[in-house]
Design goal:
mainly alpha; globular
Length: about 210
Amino acid sequence: MLTGFTAGLLLITISELGDKTFFIGAILAMRHPRRWVFIGVTLALFLMTVLSVLLGKTVSVLPQYYVEVATIVLFLGFGFKLIYDASQISPEVGLDEEQKEAEAEVNQKDHLAANASIVSIIVKAFTLTFVAEWGDRTQFATITLAANQDAIGVILGATLGHAICAVIAVMSGKLIAGRISERWLTFFGGALFVVFGVVAAFQAFPLNQS
């Protein structure tokens, strides 16, 4: 359980920081009360985490050998892809692209008045975040982790990681984002995927096995 918790916390925190859902929370928090935005965002990410873990556990019914090999390949493949992507990004580039996408999505779908009800704000934050998170790399990471880690540990770790990023987003997301390098964020995310791929490989095929 502890391994799943730690892996979920690290992967989600690094992957989610500066993501589109991060900016959606930050932008909504500038327009509506932060506490209700935070609740809506966190609920959406929690539900997505649970669904992703269920998908991962569905995959785990396959023969263990194939699940382990698939986990290693996916972690390493995705990790090296992110590292390659990071190498193609200029060191001076920030997170403008993700921010622009988030702003466009919020502007298109957030038509709530300044005095909108609490329920309306929570539902809007929930809906925008849930749709944006579907198919995101954090969902991929959660599914892959859940395939061979304790489900409860992954859910708790990933939920805490999401909550940490949501707090940062609604409190000072745009200020923080302006000081984050997309290149280094992508690189660290890729490196973390590679590390977990290597760890999964050693767990599946220990060097001292006969």
